[in-house]
Amino acid sequence: MRSALALSSLIGLAVLPVAAHAQTGYSLELGAVTAYEASLFQVGFRAAPSRGGRAAPDVALATFPDALVEGVFIGMLDLDLTYGAPLGEDAVLLPRFGVSVIAGAGGGGAGGAFGYNLGLGALARMSPTLGLRMDYTHRRFGDEGESLPLSSISIGIVWMH
After folding, report:
1. Which of 53, 67, 75, 76 has its CA 20 to 30 Å from the CA of residue 30?
2. C-alpha span between 138 and 117 (Å, rounded)
3. Is 141 helix (H, G, I), strand (E, B) or coil?
């Protein structure tokens, strides 16, 4: 837990100076999350850079509608530092790393866990203000002895300014 808090503080300090200089895109995402042999449908929101050439924050929030139908809310937050690598005039490759938090409540209980994540995204511009983004993220929550691996693949429509 201490290492997750230290890493999140380090990423926060690194993100603050560069956040004001990055062009941001906001996306609504759909995807799937897998853990062990199970998978869940994921719906989320992401605020991330939409141009290459500099480091910037990448923040993603997600929830799982299948769990909501069962009366359980599960939320997941990724706070990352990314670098936009230009892939020509209308595309950007976005490798990232950071910290993750997953929390849930329902059925008379609640809980959560800290972890880390590594991901790779690609953004293709379709117009000056609209794009398509695809992402893969691998996460690990909990202690090394009892860590929970979660991987997700998502696709989203990005509004850029």
Report:
1. 53
2. 6
3. strand
Residue 10 carries which side chain, given as an amino acid letter? L
- Residue 71, token pair as written in the block: 């009366």
Instruction: Kindly report the pTM of this predicted structure.
Output: 0.83
Average pLDDT over residues 93-109: 94
**CA–CA dist 113, 99 (Å, integer):** 11
DSSP H or E run through 117? strand 109-125
- What span, in angstroms and rounded, lies between the C-alpha atoms of 9 and 119? 19
Q: Which of 126, 127, 123, 129 is nearest to 156 (CA)?
A: 123
Mean pLDDT of 97-115: 93
Per-residue pLDDT tens over the stretch 25-49: 999 999 999 988 888 899 999 999 9
User: What whole-number percentage of the chain has pLDDT above 70?
Assistant: 86
Q: What is the rounded CA–CA span in Å between residue 85 and residue 144? A: 32
Structure tokens of 54? Answer: 């500099």
